[in-house]
Write a structure and sequence with these properties.
Structural class: alpha+beta
Protein name: DUF4177 domain-containing protein
Shape: flat
Radius of gyration: 17 Å
Number of helices: 1
Oligomer: single chain
Strand order of the largest sheet: 1-3-2
Number of strands: 3
Strand content: 35-45%
Helix content: 10-25%
Number of domains: 1
Largest sheet: 3 strands, antiparallel
């Protein structure tokens, strides 16, 4: 039995869509942009695993802090043996 080990990559999910002749509605533009990003990562050998929303505590003003939520895409690929 082989033990497969993975490496992971987390990137920020796209925020804004770009205009496209093929995608006329905002939903279609978002889907086209997401498809392009998934295909770009797949070309480098990354498999899409999941999307997550994760909290991050960030500075707000001089003394206070606030929690911001980030949308991220998680990918993985088998780690090179060696």
């Amino acid at each position: 039995m082989t033990d497969i080990r993975y490496e992971y990559c987390v990137i920020a999910a796209p925020h804004r869509t770009e205009k496209s002749r093929e995608a006329r509605t905002p939903t279609d533009r978002f889907a086209a942009m997401l498809t392009a990003e998934l295909n770009r990562m797949a070309a480098d050998g990354w498999d899409y695993l999941r999307a997550d929303v994760l909290p991050s505590e960030e500075r707000s003003g001089l003394t206070s802090r606030t929690t911001i939520y980030h949308n991220v895409l998680v990918f993985r690929r088998p780690r090179a043996q060696g």
